[in-house]
């Protein structure tokens, strides 16, 4: 099968940018965007569709197993994991790849997602070793633990900006995991932070609901953790 990959090329944040097209052929039914990028970069010389020589494509990956979130990018306009996005599922064999737009660009398809981890630090999304975690909500806690911190949910969120005070679902999901397990005394500080950084800024439009590559049911988690935090507020 022959594909045309249109890839955003930009050497650095201030540099000029454009889409460059590359022909890619593979017989593998399970070929993904990530495997195509790997193969393009392994060519002795990378040339575009017009025969112009190009530098290697900058993109991020680590696990290649849909487990780390590093390869998140826009595939035909939709935030996805490159190692999960099958080439065969893209329409007409044309695949446009762009970096996530909500995060500072590093180069080409790679962005800097440090803000995700800064948000978790600021909210103090962790339990002290002396704290016990109940197992009443194990299924929900497990689901929340699947979050990859990929940022796909933030990409589609109209209320999220990396410099804003609304931290979005990438902070909600790990917070929900703790809020489901901690007693009211141990979760007091997290509940306060959650109300400030999540509840106050979320418009509840649920544009983020069906985008998560880990399949997390964001609506269910959000409604449960909002209930926990707001119920305590009313009490
Ligand atoms: S519900 Fe809407 S505002 Fe809230 S995080 Fe999802 S997309 Fe953003
Ligand atoms: S909730 Fe889903 S989309 Fe959002 S950061 Fe976690 S894994 Fe990614
Ligand atoms: S490389 Fe880890 S999720 Fe794609």
Could you characterize what this model shows?
The protein is an alpha+beta fold. The chain is 31% helix and 17% strand. A 5-stranded mixed β-sheet has the order 2-1-7-5-6. A two-stranded antiparallel ribbon has the order 3-4. FE2/S2 (inorganic) cluster (FES) binds at residues 61-64, 66-71, 81-83. One iron/sulfur cluster binds at residues 69, 147-153, 169-170, 173, 211-212, 214, 216.
Question: Brief description of this entry?
Answer:
The chain is of the alpha+beta class and 235 residues long. The protein contains seven helices and nine strands; from the N terminus they run ββαβββββββαααααα.
Radius of gyration: 20 Å
Strand content range: 15-25%
Q: What would the CATH topology of the largest domain be?
A: Fumarate Reductase Iron-sulfur Protein, Chain B, domain 2
Q: How far from one another are the termini?
A: 61 Å
How large is the count of helical segments? Answer: 7
Chain-averaged pLDDT: 93
Structurally, the number of domains stands at 2
Bound molecules: iron/sulfur cluster, FE2/S2 (inorganic) cluster
| Coarse shape | elongated
Compressed to H and E, one letter per element, the order equals EEHEEEEEEEHHHHHH
Number of strands: 9
Relative helix content? 25-40%
CATH architecture grouping of the largest domain: Orthogonal Bundle
- CATH homologous superfamily grouping of the largest domain: Alpha-helical ferredoxin
The CATH class of the largest domain turns out to be Mainly Alpha
Question: Quaternary state, please?
Answer: single chain
Structural class: alpha+beta
Largest sheet: 5 strands, mixed
- Give the spatial strand order of the biggest sheet: 2-1-7-5-6
């Amino acid at each position: 099968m022959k594909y045309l990959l249109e890839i955003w090329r930009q050497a650095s944040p201030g540099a000029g940018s454009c889409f460059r097209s590359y022909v890619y052929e593979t017989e593998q039914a399970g070929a993904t965007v990530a495997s195509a990028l790997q193969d393009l970069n392994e060519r002795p010389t990378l040339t575009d569709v017009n025969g112009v020589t190009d530098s290697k494509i900058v993109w991020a990956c680590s696990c290649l197993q849909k487990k780390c979130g590093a390869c998140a990018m826009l595939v035909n306009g939709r935030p996805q994991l490159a190692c999960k996005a099958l080439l065969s599922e893209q329409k007409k064999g044309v695949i446009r790849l762009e970096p996530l737009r909500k995060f500072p660009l590093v180069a080409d398809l790679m962005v800097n997602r440090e803000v995700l981890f800064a948000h978790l630090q600021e909210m103090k999304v962790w339990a002290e070793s002396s704290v016990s975690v109940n197992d009443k909500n194990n299924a929900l806690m497990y689901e929340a633990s699947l979050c990859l911190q990929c940022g796909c949910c933030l990409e589609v969120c109209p209320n999220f900006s990396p410099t804003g005070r609304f931290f979005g679902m990438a902070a909600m999901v790990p917070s929900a995991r703790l809020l489901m397990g901690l007693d009211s005394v141990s979760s007091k500080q997290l509940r306060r932070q959650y109300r400030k950084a999540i509840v106050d800024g979320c418009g509840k439009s649920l544009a983020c609901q069906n985008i998560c590559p880990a399949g997390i049911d964001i609506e269910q988690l959000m409604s449960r953790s909002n209930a926990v935090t707001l119920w305590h507020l009313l009490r």
